[in-house]
Structure formats: C-alpha cells, structure tokens
Model the fold of this input.
Amino acid sequence: MRFLVMRPVSDIIQPLTLADGTHIEFLQALPIFDSEMAYKTEHSAEALLERWHRAKVPFWDPNRTPEPTFN
Done:
C-alpha cells in the first residue's frame, strides 16, 4: 500500500507555532492504490480528489475498492 501525503483540504488540526518559533503543520496520509497513483501522475492530485468526490469514495479506508480500477 502506498500513501498520498498532502495538506488537508480543510484544517482538521490547526497548525501550531511552538514557543521557540517552530511552525508545525499536520498533513494527511491517504491510502492510494497503483491505479490511483497512475491517474494522479497523469492528471494531478486535485483531479484524483475530485474523481473520488464525484464517486463518493471513502478515500480514508484502505479496504475500499480503487477508483479508478484500471492499472
């Protein structure tokens, strides 16, 4: 299993700035199948997210069916 690591579309956990000035951002790690990785490479991460949204894909679920299913 691979993961697509990206900034969340909305702030699930707000970024932090520590007392010493260190800035911390929290990223999402989304499980991604080979066919989805190929689609992302050809189109873009945003296009893959839009495709998932249209197909109502539970993208956080590693046991889901890939979308798109081709390889």
About this structure: The two ends are 14 Å apart (CA to CA).
